[in-house]
Amino acid sequence: MPHARIESLFEDVLRRNAGEPEFHQAAREVFESLGQVIEKHPQYADASILERLCEPERQIIFRVPWVDDSGHARINRGFRVEFNSALGPYKGGLRFHPSVTLGTVKFLGFEQIFKNALTGLPIGGGKGGSDFDPKGKSELEIMRFCQSFMTELYRHLGEYTDVPAGDIGVGGREIGYLFGQYKRITNRYESGVLTGKGVGWGGSRARTEATGYGAVFFAEQMLATRGESFDGKKVLVSGSGNVALYAIEKVHQLGGTVVACSDSTGVVYDRDGLDFELLQQVKEVERGRLSVYAERRGAASEYRAGGSIWSIADETRIDVALPSATQNELDEADAQVLVKSGVVAVAEGANMPSTPGAVRVFSQGNVLFGPGKAANAGGVATSALEMQQNASRDSWSFEYTEERLAEIMRNIHESCAATAEEYGEPGNYVLGANVSGFTRVADAMLALGVI
Ligand code: NDP
User: Fold this and answer.
1) Is the CB of 349 under 6 A from ligand 1?
2) Which residue, 342, 375, 408, sits at the end of a domain?
3) Rg from Cα positions in the chain
4) Ligand 1 centre from 324 Cα, in Å?
5) Disulfide check for 231: which of 28, 255, 370, 434 has CB 3.0–4.6 Å away?
6) Which position among 127, 137, 197, 233 bears the catalytic label?
7) Based on the number of CB atoms within 10 Å of its own CB, is 231 exposed (0-12), middle (13-18) or buried (19 or more)?
8) Is 195 in the pocket of ligand 1 (CB under 6 A)?
9) In what order do the strands lie in the sheet with 162-165?
10) Residue 263: CB within 6 Å of ligand 1?
11) What pLDDT shows up at residue 396?
12) Are residue 44 and residue 108 in the same domain, yes or no?
């Protein structure tokens, strides 16, 4: 830790949030960037801004009872952490995955504060979810679960209060069921209360694509600082969900080739490039596994059950990596393999997919590294654009929305790069993102008084 006060505050975070290692990791990563800022701006320390930032404004934990198809009552736990609303209503997705705990939601909510600040849009930070596992559940079970989840959560939401969206395990289908139940309970067609809605009922064009596209736009900007582009680049994208899928599509549109992607059970490796249309059909339309994609693709595809996607960089040169599955999926050893392979840029489509050891290896290896809170901010930024469209009862074209997204990603890149430069570490996007996001929230918190 760079600063005695920050170090003692971090000790406090460990003590007050015992058993939440992912939250500790996220807080440490931000704190490590803030030494100079606190020295330069003593008013932040005087007003205990960091202490306040680490304490969520509100944490909600609730029981989610639902009935499965065989008539048995099932119980899950629901969470919503409303972390910080200095810049706008709490904004951040809902994750449905068996690994979700309060600590997971706190790490994601904490990251979200700075990410949302970086977009320059009026949104605060929050996150939620449940330990519900959507895998293997029927359509009706998913609907009943979503309805029960919203039956408790609705009282905490509102377009000026808290606006959830999707994340792992929560896509357009789940947002539909959640929105339907909110509408039924409140008797309000309050479009701005959830984002990621279907385009036919209040959603924004390009929201589905936004996180993946945005991560690629961010990587494109990083590459441009070295006079490079995606053209001719060989790329690995981990995951095969919403973020991964549209990162793959955009890389291909920009002339790069994504040779592999993954899910939690395996990796597909297509030496000449993935077939995006087939992948989209299997993963998004049919909700199938990657093994099915590989089967249908035939000889052009190799499926490796249980393999690690990053080890492909040991076999062939990889130029760019876009980790887009989940937290801590890329460790120090994986990073070494990528650096040895000659990787030039890594942009995080997922939240905190690289371990601290991996980030160190990238930095020592002079790899352009875009942390998630900057690189994957395109999703939430486009959610804020969806809120704008809802507020004005308007609906923008795909091209216009995508251009707005591209512009936001250019601005985020510029703001991270300029801040890193100002603080004497040009090219350090981790520092740039943390300091730039922190400063915007901290200034708003100062202005609003001790609340
Ligand atoms: P999806 O549920 O659509 O896809 C998740 C993908 O990651 C799947 O391929 C899944 O495989 C894989 N995965 C999930 N958990 C694990 C795990 N524990 N180990 C290995 N693989 C795993 O989620 P998204 O694409 O929406 O989200 C991916 C990441 O991007 C997350 O970190 C999320 O927080 C982040 N993000 C998402 C945004 C969005 O707009 N959706 C916005 C900003 C960040 P399997 O199907 O086998 O589980």
Assistant:
1) yes
2) 375
3) 21
4) 7
5) 255
6) 127
7) exposed
8) no
9) 58-67, 73-84, 124-130, 90-96, 162-165
10) yes
11) 98
12) no
DSSP for 90-111? EEEEEEE-TT--HHHHHHHHHH
Q: How far is the CA of 325 from the centre of ligand 1 (A)?
A: 4
For residue 233, the enclosing domain spans 209-375
Give the tokens for residue 203.
């959603």
What average pLDDT does range 200-220 have in this prediction?
98
Residue 196 lies in a domain: no
Report pLDDT digits (tens) over 255-306. 999 999 999 999 999 999 999 999 999 999 999 999 999 999 999 999 999 9
127 is catalytic: yes
How much is the average pLDDT of 89-95? 98
Cα–ligand 1 centroid distance for 170 (angstroms)? 9
Q: Do 214 and 362 share a structural domain? A: yes
Domain boundary pick from 20, 40, 55: 55
Ligand 1 atom showing the smallest separation from residue 352 Cα: 32
Domain count, the chain: 3
Report if pTM > 0.70: yes
Pairing of strands 162-165, 234-237: unpaired
For residue 206 the two structure tokens come to 């390009």
56 in contact with ligand 1, CB cutoff 6 A: no
Regarding the beta carbon of 265 and ligand 1, being less than 6 Å apart is answered yes
Assign 2 a pLDDT band (cuts: 50, 70, 90): low
